[in-house]
Amino acid sequence: MKILHLDTQKGFRGGEQQLIYLAEGLRELGIDSIIAAKDELYKKAGAMGFETIDSSNLKQLLGAAKQCDILHAHASKAHTLGVFLKLLTRKPLVYTRRVDYKQKKISKLKYLLTDKVVCVSNFVKQILYANYRLDSDVIYDAVDHGLIHKVDAQKVSKIKKQYGPLIIGNIGALTAQKDHKTLIDAASQLDKSYTFLILGEGNLKQELEIYAKQKGVNNIVFLGFRDDIQNYLAAFDLFVISSQNEGICSSILQAFLFKIPVVATNAGGVSELIGDNQRGLLVPIKDSQALAQNIENLIQNKKISEDLSDQAYQFSIHFSLNSIANQYKLIYEQIIITIVSIFLLVNFS
């Protein structure tokens, strides 16, 4: 079996990382992947030994689609591209929906032409059903358990020495969706000896840096993209997400894996990871006071933090690359079986 993965996004964010994780997991299962992408994902996939093509090159896309058994789109524009390729090649199409935004009614046509839609949380599934009355499957994001074994103790020690004594981490693109201003507002209410490290790139970086200065918050450091994220995770004492929209937030799963206490806003599918304050603490979106209070609660209550982190770690074990890849493998196989069954029915009935 061979899968053509479609991604048209610029940069390298959570969705692109999940595509790589899936391709890695499928490779372990003996399933080949061609990755159609651009920018950082194109480079990273090629460096990891995957066959890659430029997602803007129609000739290459058509050639790759004809070689593959399944088309798998991983973003909205890629979904449109996938529908176009399906109409030209008659190959089945899978689409993974990662975001919780409400879509335009006209987009329903794309979904009607898609063989299987997979959502990254039940929250996204419910929105999709409310918009289009379309059913879908749910497969949560994966977390790379191998990250723990890639930690460089010397680099972790250096990070702690540079930014300690207490480091509060955040990982996410600097976009409106992630609502870093609420995090800055929360930081302004807390002890200035705490250091907030924000990892991620985005078009709001300069605006957020100015906002932090206006709020008198000098203990927030915008570190940009880091390719050794495991060393920062190992150095964090607390992990905080202040998003106002989230499909699922795979960064929280990474924090769970590293047993970092988590405080997060109740955005999108986040509560499906946190539970009823079972694996972290949830606060309302855009409530900087509640965010600050719960950050302080976990800092001051080590026993609660440890109990939450232990529960979170046990939860994260279920989301390995192999587990997620097996779930997608089953979907691919079901689609192929259905197509073969229809072919046999039509031709031999």
Structural class: alpha/beta
Please tally the helical runs, counting DSSP H or I stretches of 4 or more residues. Answer: 15
What's the alpha carbon Rg, rounded to whole Å? 21 Å
How would a textbook summarize the main sheet? 7 strands, parallel
Please explain how this structure is put together.
48% of the residues lie in helices and 17% in strands. It is built from 15 helices and 13 strands. The strands form two sheets. It has a seven-stranded parallel beta sheet, with helices on both faces. Strands 10-9-8-11-12-13 form a six-stranded parallel beta sheet, sandwiched between helices. The protein has 349 residues and is of the alpha/beta class. The protein is elongated and about 75 Å long. Helix 1 (14-28) crosses helix 15 (321-348), helix 3 (58-67) packs across helix 4 and helix 8 crosses helix 13. It starts with a strand and ends with a helix.
Could you name the key traits of this structure?
349 residues, alpha/beta, 7-stranded parallel β-sheet, 6-stranded parallel β-sheet
Short précis:
48% of the residues lie in helices and 17% in strands. It has 349 residues and is an alpha/beta fold. The chain is elongated, with a radius of gyration of 21 Å.
Give the secondary structure arrangement, pairings included.
Elements: E1 2-6, H1 14-28, E2 32-37, H2 39-47, E3 51-54, H3 58-67, E4 70-73, H4 76-89, E5 93-97, H5 108-112, E6 116-119, H6 122-132, E7 137-138, H7 153-163, E8 166-171, H8 180-187, E9 194-199, H9 205-214, E10 220-224, H10 229-235, E11 238-241, H11 250-257, E12 262-265, H12 270-274, E13 281-283, H13 288-300, H14 302-316, H15 321-348
Parallel strand pairs: 1-2, 1-4, 2-3, 4-5, 5-6, 6-7, 8-9, 8-11, 9-10, 11-12, 12-13
Helix pairs in contact: 1-15, 3-4, 7-10, 8-13, 11-14
